[in-house]
């Protein structure tokens, strides 16, 4: 005897349609029961048949669909480009991550701005200058006591925060004189003579769970 089978996609759609129809019929029955139950207290209300309950449920469903569509349209107007279509629904647009080169340039620019402020003010720098852009409240590690005579010495460096997607996991290092280089962690520790160079920023100590995660 001939038979047929549905593809996986067709079977999923059939299941979805069947679930929707079953839910629709059930809701119509609940509406009819609630309405006719209400007639016991308000005899003037007409009796609601199942056919009319189906029509009322469909009508209110269309009204709610229209309202939700208008809300979605208003949301798109207020936040243009923030949502993208995904099938029958919308989802938040994933923000574009900067390229590794752009991230590297931004990290280098942050240390260059720190050097400009240090040259003008010395080590008495405001917190906003020491804060790593986009990584607040974490700050650059500034070496205290450096002067313009300490040419070639490390002035500041990044804590261990970044990944390869951020332009490389190796920290950028600012030297007295304004040079900025990206160095491996072991080379930085050798320059500093401090194995604890990988420690958390003392101005903003990490919580225990954050230290474990890192």
Number of domains: 2
Q: Outline the biggest β-sheet.
A: 4 strands, antiparallel
Give the rounded overall mean pLDDT.
81
Number of strands: 6
Percentage of helical residues?
A: 40-55%
Q: So what's the overall shape?
A: elongated
Number of helices: 6
Low confidence ranges? 195-214
Strand-pairing-aware structural class: alpha+beta
**First-residue to last-residue Cα separation:** 64 Å
Main-sheet strand order equals: 3-4-5-6
Descriptive overview:
The chain is of the alpha+beta class and about 210 residues long. It has helices at about 10-40, 50-80, 100-120, 125-130, 185-190, 210-214; strands at about 85, 90, 140, 155, 170-175, 180. Strand 1 (about 85) and strand 2 (about 90) form a beta hairpin. Helix 1 packs across helix 2 (about 50-80). The longest helix has about 30 residues, at about 10-40.
Summarize this structure as a short list of keywords or feature phrases.
single chain; 214 residues; alpha+beta; 2 domains; two-stranded antiparallel ribbon; 47% helix; disordered C terminus; membrane; transmembrane; transmembrane helix
Protein topology:
Layout (H helix, E strand, L loop, with lengths): L7 H31 L11 H29 L4 E4 L2 E4 L7 H22 L5 H4 L10 E2 L11 E4 L14 E4 L4 E3 L2 H8 L15 H6 L1
Antiparallel strand pairs: 1-2, 3-4, 4-5, 5-6
Helix pairs in contact: 1-2
Keywords: Membrane, Transmembrane, Transmembrane helix
């Amino acid at each position: 005897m001939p038979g047929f089978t549905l593809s996986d996609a067709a079977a999923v759609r059939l299941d979805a349609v069947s679930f929707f129809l079953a839910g629709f019929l059930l809701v119509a029955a609940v509406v009819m029961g609630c309405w006719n139950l209400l007639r016991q207290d308000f005899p003037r209300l007409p009796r609601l048949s199942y056919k009319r309950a189906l029509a009322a449920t469909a009508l209110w469903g269309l009204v709610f669909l229209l309202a939700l569509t208008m809300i979605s349209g208003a949301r798109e107007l207020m936040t243009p480009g923030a949502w993208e279509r995904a099938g029958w629904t919308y989802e938040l647009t994933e923000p574009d991550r900067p390229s590794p080169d752009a991230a590297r340039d931004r990290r280098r620019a942050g240390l260059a701005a720190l050097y400009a402020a240090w040259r003008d003010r010395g080590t008495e720098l405001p917190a906003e200058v020491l804060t790593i852009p986009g990584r607040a409240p974490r700050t650059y590690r500034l070496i205290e006591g450096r002067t313009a005579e300490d040419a070639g010495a490390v002035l500041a460096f990044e804590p261990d925060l970044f990944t390869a997607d951020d332009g490389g996991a190796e920290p950028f290092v600012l030297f007295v004189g304004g040079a900025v280089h990206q160095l491996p962690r072991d080379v930085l520790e050798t320059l500093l003579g401090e194995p604890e160079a990988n420690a958390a920023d003392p101005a903003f100590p990490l919580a225990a769970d954050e230290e474990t995660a890192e």
